[in-house]
């Protein structure tokens, strides 16, 4: 059941994104977010996790080659690396060098799960960005 899985997720040991100390996922995510995660996990084919467990999930990916010469505007929503954001400053700067039109919006203090922690801010940013494409 989703509730049971959400409870198990709350107890899952993880590293705190800010300082790397061991903690439980329930210290980082609220109960509604944990239920949402549990609901999504119940619907996913377990085989999608195998490349992650094997350490091969990025094998063959050359995002720099993909970014080089992107003809369309790119919006990057960057979570705070100190709070669990995935994109490094170097990654962002590399993307800016390779792609023609990159807009980066920073979310200080926000972790990887932006759609849950900064929902309205994300929606506002995306609307402004998309409207800029419509008017261009």
Question: Could you characterize the architecture of this molecule?
Answer:
The mean pLDDT is about 90. Strand 1 (about 15) and strand 2 form a beta hairpin. The radius of gyration is 17 Å and the shape is globular. It has helices spanning about 1-10, 30-45, 50-55, 65, 90-100, 115, 120-135, and strands at about 15, 20-25, 75-80, 100-105. With about 140 residues, it is an alpha+beta fold.
- SSE-based structural type: alpha+beta
User: The biggest beta sheet, please?
Assistant: 2 strands, antiparallel
How far apart are the termini? 48 Å
Helix percent band: 40-55%
Describe this protein with a few key phrases.
47% helix; two-stranded parallel ribbon; two-stranded antiparallel ribbon; 136 residues; 13% strand; alpha+beta
Short précis:
With 136 residues, the chain is α+β, with helices and mostly antiparallel strands. Helices cover 47% and strands 13% of the residues.
Write the layout of secondary structure elements.
Layout: H1 2-11, E1 13-15, E2 22-24, H2 31-43, H3 50-54, H4 63-67, E3 74-79, H5 89-98, E4 102-107, H6 114-117, H7 119-135
Parallel strand pairs: 3-4
Antiparallel strand pairs: 1-2
